[in-house]
Amino acid sequence: xxxxxxxxxxxxxxxxxxxxxxxxxxxxxxxxxxxxxxxxxxxxxxxxxxxxxxxxxxxxxxxxxxxxxxxxxxxxxxxxxxxxxxxxxxxxxxxxxxxxxxxxxxxxxxxxxxxxxxxxxxxxxxxxxxxxxxxxxxxxxxxxxxxxxxxxxxxxxxxxxxxxxxxxxxxxxxxxxxxxxxxxxxxxxxxxxxxxxxxxxxxxxxxxxxxxxxxxxxxxxxxxxxxxxxxxxxxxxxxxxxxxxxxxxxxxxxxxxxxxxxxxxxxxxxxxxxxxxxxxxxxxxxxxxxxxxxxxxxxxxxxxxxxxxxxxxxxxxxxxxxxxxxxxxxxxxxxxxxxxxxxxxxxxxxxxxxxxxxxxxxxxxxxxxxxxxxxxxxxxxxxxxxxxxxxxxxxxxxxxxxxxxxxxxxxxxxxxxxxxxxxxxxxxxxxxxxxxxxxxxxxxxxxxxxxxxxxxxxxxxxxxxxxxxxxxxxxxxxxxxxxxxxxxxxxxxxxxxxxxxxxxxxxxxxxxxxxxxxxxxxxxxxxxxxxxxxxxxxxxxxxxxxxxxxxxxxxxxxxxxxxxxxxxxxxxxxxxxxxxxxxxxxxxxxxxxxxxxxxxxxxxxxxxxxxxxxxxxxxxxxxxxxxxxxxxxxxxxxxxxxxxxxxxxxxxxxxxxxxxxxxxxxxxxxxxxxxxxxxxxxxxxxxxxxxxxxxxxxxxxxxxxxxxxxxxxxxxxxxxxxxxxxxxxxxxxxxxxxxxxxxxxxxxxxxxxxxxxxxxxxxxxxxxxxxxxxxxxxxxxxxxxxxxxxxxxxxxxxxxxxxxxxxxxxxxxxxxx
Length: 817
Hints:
Layout: E1 4-11, E2 17-24, E3 32-36, H1 39-44, H2 46-55, H3 64-82, H4 85-100, E4 106-111, E5 125-126, E6 131-132, H5 133-136, E7 139-142, E8 153-155, E9 159-165, H6 176-186, H7 188-192, E10 196-200, H8 206-214, E11 220-225, E12 227-230, E13 235-241, E14 247-251, H9 252-259, E15 268-273, H10 288-295, E16 299-303, H11 309-324, H12 329-340, E17 353-357, E18 365-367, E19 380-384, E20 390-394, E21 396-397, H13 406-433, H14 437-450, H15 457-482, H16 486-496, H17 505-531, H18 534-547, H19 557-572, H20 587-597, H21 607-619, H22 626-652, H23 663-685, H24 692-711, H25 719-740, H26 746-757, H27 780-807
Parallel strand pairs: 1-4, 4-7, 7-17, 8-18, 9-10, 9-11, 11-15, 15-16
Antiparallel strand pairs: 1-2, 2-3, 5-6, 10-21, 12-13, 13-14, 16-17, 19-20
Helix pairs in contact: 2-3, 2-13, 6-11, 9-10, 11-12, 13-14, 14-15, 15-16, 16-17, 17-18, 18-19, 22-23, 22-27, 23-24, 24-25, 25-26, 26-27
């Protein structure tokens, strides 16, 4: 086939390492690559894949995307491993070449590494196009064997199919009549047209099958029954019926010998059994399907997973209809998969059939002549021998309209539903065991929708829900701990600390509680420091040291408290009194006279002590009120931010002069109303301090700022505006210096200094002039001042938030006077 891309995959130097080589491709070239594949991991997931695929056939499923997840993950892993960068480039180029030629690209896998033959290559999923390869392109497994290209067998219709149903009494019973009816219904169309003739073996015994094979010719053998894989001999087997009615397990090599008695040998075998497509991992030809191809069978279609009745019928219908219409076997397999996809919506059973091919040609038959009329005779079917003469064979003809009793059909439907429910139960349990609780809950919900009282599904669903909820609580606690919300984290860990799934929860809870205690103590320490209660600061610091020595001196406040206490002790220590001496001119009196003259009067505080205690009294003012501080910062940030935005527009995007565009009116509002309101709120919050001087300075700042703003940056420079701006700067510097005297308010003092001292910048023009006609030149320095004002406002808001975190919301109602 001209549009084949053949990939040869062989083992590398170590387990899990493989090489892939493009043997041929429509795009040309011989790309190659190396890849790693965790084969053991994929093999471990095969049982889960089987349950997922079978469960997807349930028509009432609501979560097909969830069910498909496992299949898609395996398919994507296989695709990304196989199609390395160079090989993928050749594949995409070949796909384009095939489409340009109006053909399909056939993907042929030459699996030279035995363990790779067990991989579910039919799940190959291209993440770029989000498609499964075998849904859009023929995909087949090429079996390396002493190769020869058989010519297509000329067949005068009908295409003769030998059907075998084997149901040993010691294995799970098969409804033989229903199985025959299923295939008969699948072939009803081609059979009625005379394109296909289906003949059933009377039983599944070796002798009966051999008799019919000798009475051929047979073009296709279709086996329905049980199959497995013998790990001891590393070989696939199928179960025929022994003389005693029990299972007679037939290894692949014996089945090859049995089929070889037919003349000509059947070109196609379909194995519709549970594990007939399963491969060994040490001998490439150990699987039943590959062994048959190696023996000389042209192609084998086998089921690598258990398959539902519906999917088996749908695949057979599409597969045989395509064969009867002269299609190649690989194209017939793709048509069969598409038939499986028809219903129910979301089924994944199209992945179950696997096609094994010998040689380079997939054209097995050439149909010649016109189809003859179908025979409706029951009982004896006439078969042609090798010499073309008729041979009588006692068999059961498959009639298109064969009917079954309603009771038998109902039993078959119930058996299929039980199998599907069990597969869904297994998949949901697997998700629960893998701790994928969300998927497990959805799958159990689907199962209970189909069968409300199914086993312990309700209890397992509730357990999965509980595990899912606990997992969410634990994740929330981790996120809270990451964001340093210690209380929320401790509460979350407390909920799950007794759960063995979360062994670290108890330790994390204790650590979060300890951190919250440290945070609370540090906040208390800062409060006492702002009040000037230095002894209490040291008490809290000592308690902090027991919890975390590294946290005992936040921002150096405990050290500052010790310094203040030492100063006070030094100042308050009284000097020793000097006794009065009679002024008799004695040596003692004369020598002590100077000291006596400087002794303080009784009950009088020394001047030095008063000087020290005065400022300390001011430092003991209450902490700032965070809410007015936040409002003040917001007002300054809004004034500065909006002003900067207006400046950007007027400076770089507006063709008119500032004055003509209304720039001065904008600044009147921002500088004359919003900014003064911000400074008023800062005064209410307690800046720069709560003394009379501090309040007077802030009041002057508010008034002068309002005068400056309302006077405006007008057509010409107004003297009022200039003087008031200088007054704003002077009062702002004064207020900032007052705030800097209190250690907890130093940062706020710097912000106050920056916001006010930068006001005179607005008079500097771009040419370096000062106090000229303002509107005629670009106000770059006004833009800078507005940015400084906005930044200061943001700084005040951040400080307010920090105060709120330290002292809580109760401070909102503290008196501000």
